[in-house]
């Protein structure tokens, strides 16, 4: 973290040293209220009872993650009385917004200034005519994140957090200035139309304003600095600026010999400081400093991506801009850390999805050598309105103008999975009309981007349907096709990915291609030694990524791939193991690393590495064998070939890695276990450690065993382990009853029946708990659960939840066919007896408590005469159920 903060400090200090403008954030002391009232911009309004908030801010940080379906999408008001001092005299005063979702109306001193549409691009307003110098000025900002059919995105698998969620700043600048109000850009655009190892042609286009009433002649000074900071050369040109003129275009062309090229290994950045000088006395009216890089690149349909003439496989991630408990209102250093995580993993590619993000993201990619794709937020579909088309075009222009000078940007993208939710079935006239409009809007955006920036590539990311995008004629529009593919997760098997890509390349051999999304959800609390699709375990996701990574590297025509996603992110409509969160990240919402991150790190990094899988699984457990051990598999990731393994100081063997993976069987003991893995590289010893607390269950529960019975936590109908990290306990899978041990009698494991096969756990959001996986499986029709425990006092906790939904929800488009077929279980009534004594009679969960809600029944019992514990489930109507059971010995 110190390294990240130091990097950030250096960056901000450089900005201050170079800039002659006054530019300071105004993030603090905003009065805020959620209200649909319209006249809150007036100076006479009393806002003293409003909440005080700081920017970045979102009003959905809590309600988008609670148990109540939906989240607030409406209007919020921000007000602040801001003192603007004498330093503003004679200058233009600009208010800059880095991001606010999604429609903003600005008022200054009770007067309407302007409106901005779109939640993810930057924007600004010149408020000079509305302010009073040396006085307090009322800023009133109305922000609305309500659904609007004319504003993309219409729908998406992420939460549309409302609010001013990025910095606001006040900038004071000369009225003779670079055109910073041209789409909130810098007013400077640097192109490198010809780049070789020997020489580079650089074209610098500047837009200049003269907002004074007097025209005149000025000088435009260019000072170039090499990547090490030394002055390379300086030029001065004359420019004539008419009175009250805006965006006067000035172009300068130069050549740089023997350039230091920008690459992923050596991200060399040049600087150019541009000044507008008075022709008479050389006074500096304005200056701007711009970083730029010198590189050339190309995408080839057969061979992939080339940077400066060298083949580079693009491997990295997508990224969403949210964090645990904060929504999308992140501090600057959190954006910096995310890009650092990608770099430390060895990634060289970031798909900035599904929208432009904080300016620091691309700044960091420039500095660290990470290539990027940036896109506008058209997701899932379009509206067939001219207003929607024009808003999309405006977003595209803002995206390109604002991010034009970043050497890391090689692709402009738009229309993610735009044929995922067409308005009609494919055999109808209405469908063909929709396809035609999709093509028309795509063609408009494509033409705009290419006219603004003819040197970069364009891309549309498709979902896994060749026919849908053929129908819309989109294969002929962008220069690159992106594929979002999830074979082996939403349906089918891993090999379906290979088959799909080979078929596609056979049909479209001349189209460059990137895998823009692929991934599997992981709840790091869940594990399984029999992993299944949609079980949310680390082990299944590991298998998924191991296959995809190998397949991607085996196909040169796949120019690159971006994992979905760098981090888990909020998606309010999702349920699953962690409600309201898409868990496909290779790090968590808190940026805790998952096993999948480790796999990519050892694959992509050059230095020798060993990373033990499951190293974050502290509360581990299982049933002892006759030797008092429990043998469980452990996965090790390494770019070394031979590895030696020790368990609790004892050498157990040497293993060989295949495709960077080694599998080893570990004999765990009760209590703390320390696994040490070592390997050698060029005489250097490489090590990794894994420590866990193994909670051993005795092989038989009767008294007199070496391992006494303490507690047992069993999930019924499940093959998964669940780690409760808060209580430091482990839940283990069920087993059928074995005399002398424990287990269920009768019934069947609950399966979620879908049109594309059965899934191992319910998708419901279980209300009243944050431990949903414990309740999302069950045994239906169970007749009894027996434990042959020794005599003593016990607490029995019965975990129950009816997994038939109270409200049938609209299926997520992203499940791509896993539509659940629900069974009517309203007639489920049963009794519960413990050792022959009724404890609960006529339990009807649906009527008495309600389905989809966590129920825990605690029962106390004395076991005597070696009778153990027998819990009987008597059917009255329908099938009795049990989701989980916890048994705790008190004495």
Automatic annotation (TrEMBL):
Name any one GO molecular function.
hydrolase activity, hydrolyzing O-glycosyl compounds
- The Glycoside hydrolase family 2 catalytic domain extends over 302-601
- Report the residue ranges that make up the Malectin domain in this protein: 759-874
Q: Which SUPFAM superfamilies does the record match to this protein?
A: (Trans)glycosidases, beta-Galactosidase/glucuronidase domain, Galactose-binding domain-like
Q: List GO BP terms, alphabetically.
A: carbohydrate metabolic process
> Start and end of every Glycoside hydrolase family 2 immunoglobulin-like beta-sandwich domain?
188-295
**Could you tell me which residue ranges the Glycosyl hydrolases family 2 sugar binding domain spans?**
29-170
| Assigned keywords, A-Z | Glycosidase, Hydrolase
Q: Which PANTHER family match?
A: BETA-GALACTOSIDASE, BETA-MANNOSIDASE
UniProt record similarity statement: Belongs to the glycosyl hydrolase 2 family.
Q: What is the designated name of this protein?
A: Beta-galactosidase
What is the protein's species of origin? Bacteroides nordii
């Amino acid at each position: 973290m110190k390294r990240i903060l130091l990097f950030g400090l250096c960056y901000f200090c450089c900005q201050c040293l170079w800039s002659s403008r006054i530019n300071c954030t105004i993030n603090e002391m905003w009065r805020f209220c959620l209200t649909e009232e319209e006249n809150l911009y007036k100076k006479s309004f009393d806002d003293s009872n409003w909440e005080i908030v700081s920017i970045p801010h979102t009003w959905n940080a809590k309600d988008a993650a609670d148990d109540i379906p939906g989240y607030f999408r409406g209007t919020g008001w921000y007000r602040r009385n801001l003192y603007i001092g004498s330093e503003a005299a004679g200058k233009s005063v600009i208010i800059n917004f880095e991001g606010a979702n999604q429609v903003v109306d600005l008022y200054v001193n009770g007067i309407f200034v302007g409106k901005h549409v779109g939640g993810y691009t930057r924007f600004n307003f010149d408020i000079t005519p509305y302010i009073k110098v040396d006085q307090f000025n009322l800023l009133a900002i109305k922000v609305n994140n309500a659904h609007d059919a004319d504003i993309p995105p219409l729908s998406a698998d992420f939460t549309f957090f409302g609010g001013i969620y990025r910095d606001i700043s006040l900038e004071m600048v000369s009225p003779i200035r670079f055109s910073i109000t041209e789409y909130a850009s810098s007013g400077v655009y640097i192109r490198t139309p010809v780049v070789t190892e020997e020489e580079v042609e650089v074209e610098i286009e500047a837009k200049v304003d003269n907002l004074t009433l007097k025209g005149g002649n000025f000088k435009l000074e260019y000072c170039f600095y090499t990547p090490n900071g030394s002055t390379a050369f300086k030029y001065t040109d004359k420019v004539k600026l008419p009175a009250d003129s805006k965006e006067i275009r000035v172009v300068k062309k130069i050549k740089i010999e023997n350039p230091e090229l920008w690459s992923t290994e050596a991200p060399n950045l040049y600087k150019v400081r541009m000044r507008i000088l008075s022709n008479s006395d050389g006074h500096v009216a304005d200056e701007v400093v711009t970083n730029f890089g010198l590189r050339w690149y190309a995408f080839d349909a057969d061979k992939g991506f080339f940077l400066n003439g060298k083949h580079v496989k693009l491997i990295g991630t997508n990224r969403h801009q949210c964090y645990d408990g904060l929504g999308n209102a992140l501090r600057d250093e959190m954006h910096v850390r995310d890009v650092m995580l990608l770099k430390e993993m060895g990634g060289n590619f970031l798909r900035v999805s599904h929208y432009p993000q904080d300016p620091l993201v691309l700044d960091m990619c420039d500095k660290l050598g990470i290539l990027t794709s940036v896109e506008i937020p058209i997701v899932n579909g379009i509206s067939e309105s001219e207003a929607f088309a024009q808003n999309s075009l405006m977003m595209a222009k803002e995206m390109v103008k604002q991010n034009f000078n970043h050497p890391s940007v090689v692709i402009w993208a738009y229309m993610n999975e735009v044929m995922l939710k067409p308005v009609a079935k494919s055999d109808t006239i209405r469908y063909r009309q929709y396809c035609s409009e999709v093509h028309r809007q795509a063609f408009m955006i494509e033409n705009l981007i290419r006219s603004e920036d003819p040197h970069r590539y364009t891309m549309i990311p498709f979902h896994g349907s060749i026919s849908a995008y053929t129908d819309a004629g989109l294969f002929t529009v962008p220069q690159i096709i992106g594929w979002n593919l999830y074979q082996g997760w939403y349906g089918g098997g891993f090999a379906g990915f290979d088959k799909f890509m080979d078929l596609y390349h056979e049909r479209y051999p001349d189209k460059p291609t990137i895998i823009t999304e692929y991934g599997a959800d992981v709840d790091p609390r869940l594990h399984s030694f029999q992993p299944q699709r949609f079980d949310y375990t680390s082990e299944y996701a590991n298998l998924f990524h191991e296959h995809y990574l190998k397949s991607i590297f085996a196909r040169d025509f796949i120019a690159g791939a971006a994992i979905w996603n760098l981090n888990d992110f909020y998606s309010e409509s999702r349920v699953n193991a962690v409600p309201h969160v898409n868990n496909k990240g290779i790090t968590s919402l808190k940026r805790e690393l998952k096993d999948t991150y480790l796999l990519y790190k050892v694959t992509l990094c050059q230095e020798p590495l060993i990373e033990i899988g499951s190293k974050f699984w502290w509360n581990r457990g299982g049933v002892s064998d006759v030797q008092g051990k429990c043998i469980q598999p452990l996965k090790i990731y390494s770019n070394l070939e031979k590895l030696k393994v020790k368990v609790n100081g004892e050498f157990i063997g040497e293993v060989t890695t295949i495709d960077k993976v080694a599998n080893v069987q570990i004999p765990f003991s009760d209590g703390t276990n320390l696994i040490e893995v070592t390997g050698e590289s060029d005489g250097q010893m490489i090590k990794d450690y894994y420590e866990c607390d193994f909670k051993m269950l005795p092989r038989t529960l009767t008294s007199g065993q070496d391992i006494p019975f303490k507690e047992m936590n069993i999930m019924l109908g499940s093959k998964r382990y669940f780690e409760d990290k808060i209580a430091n306990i482990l839940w283990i899978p069920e087993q059928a009853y074995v005399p002398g041990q424990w287990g269920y009698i009768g019934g069947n494991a609950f399966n979620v029946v879908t049109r594309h096969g059965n899934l191992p756990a319910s998708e419901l959001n279980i209300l009243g708990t944050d431990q949903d996986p414990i309740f999302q499986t069950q045994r239906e029709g169970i007749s009894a659960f027996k434990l042959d425990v020794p005599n003593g006092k016990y607490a029995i906790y019965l975990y129950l939840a009816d997994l038939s939904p109270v409200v049938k929800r609209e299926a997520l488009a992203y499940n791509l066919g896993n539509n659940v077929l629900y069974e009517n279980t309203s007639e489920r009534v049963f009794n519960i007896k413990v050792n022959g004594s009724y404890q609960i009679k006529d339990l009807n969960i649906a009527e008495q408590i309600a389905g989809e809600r966590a129920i825990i029944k605690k029962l106390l019992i004395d076991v005597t005469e070696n009778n153990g514990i027998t819990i009987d489930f008597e059917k009255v109507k329908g099938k009795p159920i049990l989701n989980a059971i916890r048994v705790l010995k008190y004495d």
